[in-house]
Amino acid sequence: MPAHGFEAEVPLALTDEVRAKTDHLYDRVANLIPRLEWDLHAPTIARINDLKVEKNAVILAHNYMTPDIFYAVGDFRGDSLQLAKEAAATDAQVIVQAGVHFMAETSKILSPEKTVLIPSMEAGCSLASSITGADVRLLKQRYPGVPVVTYVNTTADVKAETDICCTSSNAVQVVEHICAEWGTDQVILIPDQYLARNVAAMTDKKVITWAGACEVHERFTAEDIREIRAGNPGVVVLAHPECPPEVLAEADFAGSTSAMSGYVKTEQPKNVVLITECSMSDNVALENPGVEFVRPCNLCPHMKRITLENILHALETMTHEVHVDPVIAEKARLAVQRMVDLPLSGPATNFRPHADRDVIAIEHR
Ligand code: 13P
Ligand code: SF4
């Protein structure tokens, strides 16, 4: 049995057929992955891509997947919002989520008739595990008449208690939209206290939040950014809005993973640092060979649970299938679908902190 613990159903070897099927994919990652290393992956990649055709499956790959997954087997690549939209739109019968569990649940909620697979049941999220549906019910009792906006990084039972979902790419627009619809200037935005504080800085709405945090982004500090700038004069700093506001205050641009990627593509800075998960820099660098990347980053242990080997195992054995209780799924679908249906206009949000605007409360259990 190989070290990763999965025995492929068909013996995998680097044959001429495998080379013919994968050489064009290697071109996408050749600037990063040595040929010898690629040759180890190529049989698995070829088998995964064959199985996708056999089983009418697509792989939705989040921007934090490693480049072998992202570029060689991912059919759709993007941030949480883009992947949710693909999950709703695809004709494929099977969705393999190359991301974390809440993303797979979101896909299942949007496409209940499809088989949704997550290659590792251990691919969780510190935000999703910070709050439960019961917590949201208590919040609603504490703040009657205040709409609840929930970040997609939550479980289905939390979404089911929610008026509308958001992601980091549309959070400001969603908050403005729901407040206008409800005729109120207060909103509950949970569970990421930092995203909520960064959204509060961009709107005049009164934001109540929850004491959750992303274990990857909360570790960055303003001092980290100052040190990076001191060591790399002229570097352009891009940060994810799950980082604390003090970090965003030191950045040149702050937006979702796809917004950061779009910034690099259009602006082509001479050198850049992405204050986010490590694989982002690898993936964005491959598409922007003229840009130099400064590499401090934090790994997400949950995203890194997904590997080529367990994607292959998922497709061969049709595991682990994601199920959501139909009653919860139907309620959660309304909240996710409302977000998906919102027309997003204008350029990606660049989160700019306003020193005089912050959340009005950070609630906890
Ligand atoms: P986005 O891809 O929506 O920016 O979210 C990042 C994230 O933390 C996913 O886990
Ligand atoms: Fe969750 Fe943070 Fe990992 Fe995203 S990066 S999956 S928010 S722990």
For the record, what is the CATH homologous superfamily label of the domain at 2-125 and 302-317? NadA-like
Oligomeric status of the shown chains? single chain
**Helix-strand category:** alpha/beta
Alpha carbon gyration radius: 21 Å
The amount of helix comes to 40-55%
How much of the sequence lies in strands comes to: 5-15%
The number of helical elements comes to 15
- Strands across the major sheet, in which order? 6-5-7-8-13
Topology:
Layout: H1 16-29, H2 35-54, E1 57-62, H3 67-72, E2 76-78, H4 80-89, E3 94-98, H5 101-110, E4 115-117, H6 133-142, E5 148-151, H7 156-159, E6 164-166, H8 171-182, E7 186-190, H9 193-200, E8 206-210, H10 222-231, E9 236-239, H11 245-250, E10 253-254, H12 257-267, E11 271-275, H13 278-287, E12 292-294, H14 308-317, H15 326-341, E13 361-363
Parallel strand pairs: 1-2, 1-3, 3-4, 5-6, 5-7, 7-8, 8-13, 9-10, 9-11, 11-12
Helix pairs in contact: 1-2, 2-14, 4-5, 5-15
The structure holds 1,3-dihydroxyacetonephosphate (13P) and iron/sulfur cluster.
Question: Care to give the gist of this entry?
Answer:
This protein is an alpha/beta fold and 365 residues long. Helix content is 43%, strand content 14%.
